[in-house]
């Protein structure tokens, strides 16, 4: 999640602290100097991890629960239910408002950011009307429940608002991935063949 110029893993940080004294003061592992350095190393790693956890709770992709609710409130969004993924979608929509693309690829990129999916997950196709489009294969993985229709309406309105004014969104077609396997059986039926010969 975080990329730094220097390694800040717990082991690396501990090794730096334990070797921070000059060589003549670096004694055996059970020496008083090393015991003190171990205590300092524990404090450093604990504070570093606490800071990373606090930062993680402010990132949209990783925060959850009350932290996510507070982040949504910063954008003027009230939580509908306990669905964190949908709340993240609403926040992303607020962030993407008024960013209208020019080409189909621009619009696909905006929708991909909005839904937090890859650009090849769905597609935009035209209809018989040249100023009308359909978005197909949109992954709809949010919990259904009693707010499912509200979520679909918000998604439809969000995508329509991202389109240039002359374009109309005809339909959204969703796809849902199933974690279980699909088995297909084929039934073949044979019937006996009877040949009748004419007697002369």
Report on the architecture of this protein.
- 42% of the residues lie in helices and 10% in strands.
- The chain is mainly alpha-helical and 200 residues long.
- The protein has a 3-stranded mixed sheet, covered by helices on one side.
- α3 packs parallel to α4.
- The longest helix has 25 residues, at 32-56.
Which keywords apply here?
200 residues, mainly alpha, 3-stranded mixed sheet, 6 helices, 10% strand, elongated
Helix/strand/pairing category: mainly alpha
Oligomer: single chain
The helix content is 40-55%
- Report the uncertain regions: none
* Main beta-sheet annotation: 3 strands, mixed
Q: How many helix segments?
A: 6
Overall pLDDT confidence: 77
- Spatial strand order of the main sheet: 1-2-3
In total, the number of strands is 3
Q: Which sequence of SSEs, written as H and E, runs from N to C?
A: HHHHHEEHE
Shape: elongated
Rounded to the nearest angstrom, the radius of gyration is 30 Å
- The amount of beta strand, in percent, is 5-15%
Distance between the termini: 90 Å
